[in-house]
Amino acid sequence: MKTGLELIFTLQLAVEIMDEYNLKGLEKRHANMLRKTLEKNLESSYDKAFDLNPTIAINAMNLKQRMISQIATLKEAEAIAFSEYVNNFFEDKKKITKDIKITIKQID
Prior knowledge:
Largest sheet: none
Number of strands: 0
Oligomer: single chain
Radius of gyration: 17 Å
C-alpha cells in the first residue's frame, strides 16, 4: 500500500538537489517556479512524516539520495545492467530480502 511518503520524500529530495545545480535563464525560472510550488504543497506533509519519526525520515532521504547519486554516475551499459539487476530483485524480492536485516540508524 502506498502511503504517499515515497512521493513526499522524492519531491523533497528533488527540491534539495536543485540547490546543487547552477541553473540559468529560463531553466532556472521554471525550476524555481516548480520548487516554490512543491515546497508550498509538501511542507506540511513532510513535517508530519518527519514528526512521526525523524530518524526514518532522514534515513529515507539520505538512502534515496545516495542511490540516485550512484545511479547517475553509471555509464549507459552499466545502467542497463543495473536495470536488469533491479528487475531481478523485484521479481523475487521475498527470497532476496529474507536474510537481510535492516537496521535503522542515523546516516550522515
